[in-house]
């Protein structure tokens, strides 16, 4: 590892791929660099579609014994994995900050969040209940069984290199499935380290594979085309989600799609302004604005607009930008140059159409992919930020007059993942929470991420839910058994 850190457990920095229970070096290598410094961290095995096929075959072979394992025994292995992840939280956080760039405090938080899905689904594994239904005819028994869906393929993004993986692997293994994971090429190290600990926890060989690759298209085609794969779980952009949706049609796979967002963040006149500012900072600038549930549009009612903007500007200016490995850093680098260019494009488009920069607005003097936390006012629906997901540290503020108007504006998007609003009038809270067309609504809070709640979007933000007691359903098939008791 070529940056300043050392790991307590050096074996957590794995560069081989984990394929069908074997660590394989592969013929090609994939470079992993630190977005804060540009330094090479490691070169990992660059796997192929053939490796993915091998992993799928291994998962199919390992599944029957795993599905036949008593749920309590499966749960015990998942629990041991949870314990190992938490025992190695610091090393895993350092790896994550090195490859993804988020501040170390956020990485520690993500490791705990990622582990919580393993803990949660270890418990859910023991509660996969069926039904016995009163038969309409005598001499019959009607049963409903729930069985594992089959081999699962997962494709995950770079912005949450651990949590987006355990949010899929947890329920898959709990349900009795095997799973093959293709992490983002930018952040494979966290995924491989999780596999080291899964193996240590006693997960039987073949049930989990991690296939880093520079050939996302080829591996994706294997995952979506291989008939042994019965479910595809994807987290990433809506554009790629639609592509994978189409590719999965020929083998009629179950799909879990966690896609892009365009979250409105609405502040009504009766809001607690200080709390709203705290929520806006938490929602907008977490992971340098690179989360699917980041506030993407801030709507502020006319009566408190100026007071809110002034206090938000003070808070934005106070954010500490730098290498996430350094103490006290709150905003790290963006993942790559293209991400910075998108933020610049959104700012240029907005200011050209009349918006004003209150603070930030340009690349950081730190250079590289660091960008100044930015606040714009005078933003309108005619600007790109109104319809496109910025995925960077840019907060565009729209002024609004009345509730019906702002709900119409907030819902005027093809996305429907997360929305937030601050208000204290109880009738308004109910009206607005029910009127917003989103899978997730935060009321008087900017942070909604937890394993106990169903996470997912509507419209072009996706299909299905992850986490919560609902999250295991998509990894199960329902079988109806009609049992005649009068043998002919
Ligand atoms: N809804 C959610 O829970 C959620 C969570 C995180 C990120 N996201 C979204 O993801 C996007 C940012 O992440 P990203 O840049 O990694 O997204 P992305 O869609 O570019 O990549 C996501 C994953 O898909 C893979 N991929 C890319 N092209 C592929 C192809 N042709 N076939 C198969 N796989 C392919 C990538 O290698 C990566 O592993 C944003 O839109 C964000 O909103 C959504
Ligand atoms: O980027 C999307 C993730 O799902 C964010 S989180 O789960 O809300 O932390």
Question: Can you describe this structure in just a few lines?
Answer:
One of its GO terms (biological process) is gamma-aminobutyric acid catabolic process. The protein contains 14 helices and 20 strands.
Q: Could you characterize what this model shows?
A:
- The chain has helices at residues 49-68, 71-87, 89-100, 104-124, 163-175, 189-200, 216-225, 238-247, 273-285, 305-317, 337-352, 384-387, 403-411, 426-435; strands at residues 17-19, 22-24, 29-33, 40-45, 131-133, 140-148, 151-155, 179-182, 208-210, 229-235, 254-258, 263-267, 295-301, 356-359, 374-377, 394-400, 418-422, 440-443, 462-463, 476-484.
- It starts with 16 loop residues before the first strand and ends with a strand.
- By secondary structure, the protein is α/β, with parallel strands linked by helices.
- Helix 1 (49-68) packs across helix 7 (216-225), helix 3 (89-100) packs across helix 4 and helix 4 runs parallel beside helix 5 (163-175).
- The strands form five sheets. It has a seven-stranded mixed β-sheet, with helices on both faces. Strands 9-8-7-10-11-19 form a six-stranded mixed β-sheet, with helices on both faces. A three-stranded antiparallel β-sheet has the order 5-6-20, with no helix packed on it.
- The protein has 14 helices and 20 strands.
- The mean pLDDT is 97.
- The protein is globular and about 80 Å long.
- Strand 8, helix 6 (189-200) and strand 9 (208-210) form a beta-alpha-beta unit.
- Bound molecules: nicotinamide-adenine-dinucleotide and ligand LB4VBGO6.
- This is Succinate-semialdehyde dehydrogenase NADP(+).
- It comes from Sphingopyxis granuli.
- InterPro entries: Ald_DH/histidinol_DH, Ald_DH_C, Ald_DH_CS_CYS, Ald_DH_CS_GLU, Ald_DH_N, Aldehyde_DH_dom, Aldehyde_DH_Superfamily, Succ_semiAld_DH.
- The active site is at residue 258.
- Its EC number is 1.2.1.16, 1.2.1.79.
